[in-house]
Design a protein that fits this description.
This protein is an alpha+beta fold. It contains twelve helices and twelve strands. Helix 5 runs antiparallel to helix 8, helix 10 packs antiparallel against helix 11 and helix 11 packs across helix 12.
Length: 333
């Protein structure tokens, strides 16, 4: 078994400095931050990841949930998924976020999993997790057996000839609908990235999943308030009722005035190579009467460019029904 150094730190700049000598944006980086460890340790046991050094960031002062002056949220990267989901202000003002978190993993895992780690969790594509197979995401240029192989749970939106892996996060889908901002500290200073720009499409470089650069540490996630009168929900469809990743999910924030949609934000999970914001569905619904027929039309728009693989065509209709039903639920007083 390979040995690794385990370095604890309580200083944010020190954590960034320690990690910056390794290209942490690449597969098989030699240095990794470790937070809850619920993704990383699994991958190390499978030999998918084999860092020499783990920089333990659990002592950093990034475990607070703060409300911002405008009524939004500033969430530390080390806030545990269970704490965020069960926070009274999050439950009352951002139900979509609480529901998405509670739909993920198990209670035990949510007690360990962190906000930063959840954003960076890896695909559940079986070939990625098994080093006996080629995989462009794990080993760039080696091939993608999923395209001709077992792809029932894989993506239909944002795929490429190099990779069709689904982004598995539920929380990130809610954050996409909430138009969250990711706050990053890197060797070159601090920066903020809109969540829609944070995740990359696979293209010909599926091993690059986010805009993070070597040494970059996610410090916070900032969420603006949902304007008054909006109703938000997260609906997740999966093979079993708990402890299972999404086959399709929808995060919806809906405002209705005088029977018409005055504002809507829509994101889909389980179907995209990244958490999928649907500008097409939002456009189709804006100003339209809030009724089932228009919800279905919006869902059709959201999946218009979907590209099925050999075993996952069913996901297209599933995702449409999921979104149309989520919109109906959000429209119900
Ligand atoms: C059995 C099982 C079922 C699951 N089911 C679901 C599910 O249904 N839905 C769902 O959404 N998720 C699910 N998950 C995934 C789970 O949510 C993630 O494993 C978890 O959120 C990762 O957080 P962590 O803190 O444990 O990350 P870690 O494992 O500690 O880290 C993950 C990655 O992020 C990096 N990292 C961590 N924090 C930072 C930071 N602040 N800045 C920069 N890099 C950082 C690490 O270096 C590592 O590469 C499941 C996991 C398991 C094991
Ligand atoms: S879909 Fe992506 S993660 Fe899965 S085998 Fe292909 S390249 Fe690897």
């Amino acid at each position: 078994m390979k040995l690794f150094a385990f370095e604890k730190t309580s200083d944010i700049s020190d954590a960034v400095k320690r990690a910056s000598s390794s290209d942490t944006s690449q597969p098989a980086a030699k240095i990794r931050f470790i937070a809850g460890g619920t993704t990383l340790l699994d991958l190390m046991k499978l030999s998918v990841e084999s860092p020499d050094t783990l920089v333990d960031i659990n002592r950093l002062p990034l475990d607070k949930i703060e409300t911002t002056r405008d009524g939004g949220l500033k969430i530390g990267a080390l806030v545990r998924n269970s704490d965020l989901a069960n926070h009274p202000y999050v439950k009352s003002h951002f139900p979509v976020l609480s529901e998405a978190l509670l739909s993920g993993a198990s209670a035990q895992l949510r007690n360990m999993a962190t906000t930063g780690g959840n954003l960076l969790q890896k695909t559940r594509c079986a070939y990625y997790r098994d080093t006996a197979y080629a995989c462009n995401k794990r080993e760039p240029g080696s091939g993608c057996p999923a395209i001709e192989g077992e792809n029932r749970s894989l993506a239909v939106l944002g795929t490429s000839d190099s990779c069709i892996a689904t982004n598995p996060s539920d929380m990130s889908v809610a954050l996409m609908a909430l138009e969250a901002t990711i706050v990053i500290k890197g060797p070159g200073g601090d920066r903020e990235v809109a969540i829609d720009d944070f995740f990359l499409l696979p293209g010909s470089t599926p091993h690059l999943e986010t805009v993070l650069k070597p040494g970059d540490l996610i410090t916070h996630v900032v969420v603006r308030p949902i304007p008054a009168g909006g109703k938000s929900i997260y609906l997740k469809l999966r093979d079993r009722a708990s402890y299972e990743f999404a086959l399709g999910s929808a995060a919806v924030i809906l405002h209705i005035e005088a029977g018409r949609v005055s504002r809507v934000r829509i994101a889909l999970g389980g179907v995209g190579t990244k958490p999928w914001r649907s500008a097409e569905a939002e456009k189709a619904l804006s100003g339209a009467e809030a009724n089932e027929s228009n919800f279905r039309k919006a869902a059709d728009e959201a999946l218009r460019n979907a590209k099925p693989q050999t075993h996952n065509k069913f996901k297209i209709e599933l995702a449409k029904r999921c979104l149309a039903h989520a919109l109906k639920m959000a429209a119900t007083p």
